[in-house]
């Protein structure tokens, strides 16, 4: 299945407990996103390692662990810099999308229905 031209960007901070469920929902997206970029802002709970352990198979992914907490804006700015997709969707780690979530959003990029 061809990936959609969308990167999912996520900034984490002490989000390890939320990542398996979030990544399971991302793995179920149909069609999948072009890439997944996770930037961890110096979590104390091993969020970056947990992200690496649960990355959705088949979706190109980047996990970057920052050595300082730059806050959501600083983390998202870094995630945007790492992304190569023409469009982005920013998510928090506690979001659980339905499998058909992305397709209608991308369809709107081509114009009204």
Largest sheet: 4 strands, parallel
Neighbour order of strands in the largest sheet: 3-2-1-4
Order of helices and strands: EHEHEHEH
Distance between the termini: 23 Å
- The helical percent reads 25-40%
| Uncertain stretches of 5 or more adjacent residues | none
Count of discrete alpha- or pi-helical segments spanning 4 or more residues: 4
Q: What is the overall shape?
A: globular
Report mean pLDDT, rounded to a whole number.
95
Helix/strand class: alpha/beta
Strand content: 25-35%
Radius of gyration, CA atoms, in whole angstroms? 14 Å
Strand segment tally: 4
Walk me through this protein's architecture.
This protein has 113 residues and is an alpha/beta fold. Helices cover 33% and strands 26% of the residues. Helix 2 links the parallel strand 2 and strand 3. It is globular.
Descriptors:
single chain; alpha/beta; four-stranded parallel beta sheet
List the helices and strands and how they pair.
Blueprint (H helix, E strand, L loop, with lengths): L3 E9 L6 H9 L5 E9 L5 H8 L6 E6 L4 H12 L4 E5 L10 H8 L4
Parallel strand pairs: 1-2, 1-4, 2-3
Helix pairs in contact: 1-2
What's this entry about, in short?
By secondary structure, the chain is an alpha/beta fold.
